[in-house]
Amino acid sequence: MKIVKFITLLTFFATLTVGAQEIANHALGLRLGDSDGFGAEISYQKSLFRYNRLEVDLGWRDSRNYDAFKLAGIYQWIHTIEGDFNWYYGVGGGLGSVDFTRIPNNTPDGGLFIFAAGDIGIEYNFDIPLLLSLDFRPEIGLVGYDGFSNNFDFDIALGIRYQF
After folding, report:
1. What is the DSSP letter of 33?
2. Where are the domains of the chain?
3. Can you name the CATH fold of 22-163?
4. What would the pLDDT profile of 146-161 be if each residue is shown by its tens digit?
5. 110's torsion region: left (phi>0), alpha (psi -120 to 50) or beta?
6. Of 45, 1, 42, 5, residue with least CA distance to 25
7. What is the DSSP string of 142-164?
8. Of 74, 87, 113, 117, which is least packed with CB atoms within 10 Å of its CB?
9. Which pTM was predicted?
10. Angle at Cα 93 formed by Cα 92 and Cα 99, nearest 5°?
């Protein structure tokens, strides 16, 4: 019985790496989109291990009620779907500065905030050094979200990156 459990576990862990595609050492580009307005981020990805990477995004958000600058860092795990098509997930967080000047009186002017984030998405790695992705990044405010109507945000974005 012990040998059956051992072989089952060994087979399970072996299938996790079968067919996995290596990721580029560096990728630089744009991440465009947001859930309640428009956002643009300069996005940099750095591979850390064979199937893991760190993504750092510096961006600007624009909605009807506020403007914000954000810096986010996400640790990601990448898995192959088929061929050059991958899916990934990750966790991280960030900080930013928000300006509420678009909201009528009785609201704060803005300030700094800190958030935690998750990430899940799909990407296609072209034969040329181009990477296209679509991801969903839920964010929850931890500190400094007093002026927001809620402290939970669904960030959806399209990524276009040059790999090198």
Report:
1. -
2. 22-163
3. Porin (2.40.160)
4. 555 557 788 899 999 9
5. left
6. 45
7. EES-TTSS-SEEEEEEEEEEEE-
8. 87
9. 0.78
10. 160
